[in-house]
Design a protein that fits this description.
Blueprint lengths: L9 E5 H4 L5 E6 L7 E8 L4 H4 L5 E5 H7 L14 E7 L2 E6 L5 E2 L6 H13 L6 H7 L6 E11 L3 E5 L13 E5 L3 E12 L3 E10 L7 E4 L10 E3 L3 E6 H10 L4 H7 L4 E5 L6 E6 L5 E3 L2 E4 L5 E7 L8
Parallel strand pairs: 1-3
Antiparallel strand pairs: 1-4, 2-3, 2-5, 5-6, 6-7, 8-11, 9-10, 9-15, 11-12, 12-20, 13-19, 14-18, 15-17, 16-17, 19-20
Length: 317
């Protein structure tokens, strides 16, 4: 059997299709029963209600088994729960018809996850974010929860925002922001988006410095570079002081230590051994990419918070 899809999980196929007694005709996707179930069900053109309602006539198989019977399923297997399709084979062509819309499907359909990722990527390319968007991002709702994950230490007040496994330990690649913050210890808060399409992901992170009213947000600038923002190649970001970053560099040897610490977690509030200084490390929305950070400023133009938007919840189902 050819493996078309890695870790494909299971689907339900009538035995009449598996035994070659009927031609594949109907494809439905129901709510999966568990994490090894795709929810897909395939029926043949002569399978009636009486036949499919008898569990003895159904088999649970790897999705690849079904795709080997009809490879055109590769075009649609990432479609969402609730999909109802009719398979058409005529004049040498094979395609699906959406039974709910009568739309013909002749090319590969992107998964809901991929669609959400691409929409969000376009959003992240914006040069600025509204005050209303940031405030909504950090407001608890039925979809967003706020988690204070710990504190980060700033003994100099010089701020670095960087991927801790790829860039924070590199003096050449980490960049200090052009504004300083008061020396101190500050809470790090994450906005966690709970979505059916993308599950639970970090939608935003902020370093809370002052409780003053925010008048506006502006893009951070790097002191030694014209480029704003920061790159992520390990799916992580961190808020860190410049001196603490030097201590971290002395400690750092390889990523294995942190991979073990982070296993199964979306964040850690980690103290560098032999110091009293902590760094907050956390996942970055959809993972690798390039992200902007923002200063939240009061009426005196003082930095009250640092914010990183990762996901626009309005774009995600």
């Amino acid at each position: 059997m050819k493996k078309y899809v890695e870790n494909a999980a299971s689907c339900i196929v009538t035995k009449s299709i598996l035994n070659g007694e009927t031609k594949f005709r109907w494809l439905f996707r129901e709510e999966p029963l568990n994490n090894i179930d795709t929810g897909w069900m395939a029926f043949g053109d002569s399978d009636n209600d009486e036949y499919v309602n008898d569990p003895k006539n159904l088999s649970v198989v790897d999705l690849n088994t079904l795709i080997n019977i009809e490879p055109t399923i590769l075009n649609v297997y990432e479609m969402p729960v609730g999909t109802d399709l009719i398979f058409i084979e005529e004049d040498g062509e094979k395609y699906f018809i959406n039974a709910k819309t009568n739309e013909q499907i002749r090319e590969k359909v992107k998964s809901p996850f991929t669609i959400a990722f691409e929409k969000n990527l376009d959003f992240l390319r914006k040069d600025e974010y509204s005050k209303e968007f940031i405030e909504n991002l950090f407001t608890e709702s039925d979809r967003i929860s706020l988690d204070t994950i710990g504190e980060a230490d700033f003994p100099t007040g010089q701020v670095i925002i960087a991927d801790p496994l790829c860039y924070l330990h590199s003096e050449e690649n980490r960049k200090i922001l052009d504004r300083t913050i008061p020396i101190g210890k500050y809470e790090v808060e994450l906005a966690i988006l709970n979505s059916k399409t993308i599950s639970k992901r970090v939608a935003g992170a902020r370093l809370k410095i002052k409780n003053d009213k925010i008048i506006r947000y502006e893009q951070t600038q790097n002191k030694s570079s014209k480029l704003n923002g920061f790159g992520v190649d390990a799916g992580l970001a961190s808020f860190c002081d410049a001196t603490v970053a030097e201590e971290y560099t002395k400690f750092y040897s390889n990523n294995d230590y942190f991979i073990k610490l982070l296993q199964g977690k979306q964040f850690i509030d980690w103290e560098i051994p032999g110091t009293n200084h902590k760094i907050a490390m956390f996942e970055t929305g959809f993972g690798d990419g390039y992200y902007m950070s923002l200063y939240g400023l009061n009426e005196k133009d003082e930095v009250c918070e640092l914010v990183i938007p990762f996901i626009n919840p309005e774009l995600i189902d």
